[in-house]
Fold this sequence. Notes:
This protein is α/β, with parallel strands linked by helices. It has 17 helices and eleven strands. The chain has an eleven-stranded mixed β-sheet with strand order 1-3-2-4-6-5-10-11-9-7-8, with helices on both faces. Helix 9 packs across helix 16 (450-464) and helix 10 (306-324) packs across helix 15 (410-418). The longest helix has 24 residues, at 353-376. The radius of gyration is 21 Å and the shape is globular. The chain starts with 10 loop residues before the first helix and ends with a helix.
Amino acid sequence: MTQTDIWRLNATDLTALTRSGELSALEVTQNAVDRMHQANPDLNAVVEDLSTEALERARELDAAVAGGAPAGPLHGVPVTIKINVDQKGRATSNGVVALKDVIAPEDAPVVRNLQKAGAIVIGRTNTPEFSFRADTDNPLHGRTHNPWGRHISPGGSSGGAGAGVMAGIGALAHGNDIGGSLRFPAAANGAVTVKPGLGRVPAWNPSQQAERGILAQSMSVQGLITRSAADLHLSMPSLIAADPRDPFHVSMPWRGEALDDPIKVAFTKNTFGYALHPEVDKALDTARDALVDAGYLVEEIDPPDVFECGRSGYRALMGEVLTLMQNDIKAAGSETIREIFDVYFQEFPPIVETDLIRMLAKRTHYAREWSLFMEDYALVLSPFLPQPFFKPDRDTEGVEGVHEVLGCAVYSYAMNFLGLPAACVPSRLADLPSGPQPINVQIAARRWREDMAVNAAAAIEARVGQMCLPLWEKMDT
Length: 477
């Protein structure tokens, strides 16, 4: 590892060197900035360059440690922040031209927690308008590209985060997820993430003018996209630190009590009538075999009805969007995003008025069914998407496009409606006619047991390897 290759280090390896003093925060940050300037022009993952501030913060951290201050758990780790979350003095544009001058008065809890742990923000990453697409493009900052090639969407809405971290731009990438916005970019780019469960990570934007709808509050979560599962174990304990500005945050340790071995895993390939692509089928088999070899007891059994739960939950969310956001989308959104929302409302007919109240009540029924099921099966291994990841702008191609992008993604948004944690990890690199493409699977876990989902992701990664390595080899050539 040469001095110019520091950016290749995972956060776990990086902190071992920064906390021991073998590398300074300034050395790490300078190398990360150089990599960002090298890789980002082709990707447009980072849309606000914070190099100057990052280097100054690195000098401050080095001076503090030299003066006897303890190094934080993420000392010197370069990170990116998504542009829909408040960072003091920066625009929280959410990819919307009309919001480009909404300047955050203070840091959101996730930004504060990362910086308090010693992380250094090197840039802010792209998102689609209103952070409500599984692809990433907007009139304000333009399109983000996937480092694997332009035949694959980078995912969304945390598309800049996923593309950037897999290209080596920062060791950790902040993102968020209301229906899959951490897991879609992880799947698109071959990264690793865990969608935290309800209440695990404190969330609030000081710039917001009104509280979000109840489903937006209960389905949306903050998290991180990484290149390795170990980096989630390293970084998530800092991210979940309490913040009084989120009154519903649940203060619990990252790791829960160990369960008796063997841990039972429910394994399903049920795609509810959607065709299961052979490459996804192989990815699921590889993930299953990896867990068996790691000592898990994997049984093929379907969990409670994911299709009904997921579709009902997303229809309810669309009802809330129709009620609370439609005027903003019409007034400030581009023609593209307005047309996409029109199709969303066709794919997921909004549940409104009294029926919406009834569905909010029924949410507890679905959650209880899963809670009882997971008394026996602590984890559920399933597809994330039934097909390899879609091409850019697929969701602009009418009903069929939205159906392929979101209609079939019930394993994704069902977890948001249930409030359960779910990891997403690559388990295969497919050689498709369009080009190489990672295939991710999903691992859902019991409530409050994000750590178990990450443990299982690490077991799969141990079998498959980190997907960034073949990607960097491809990029280098």
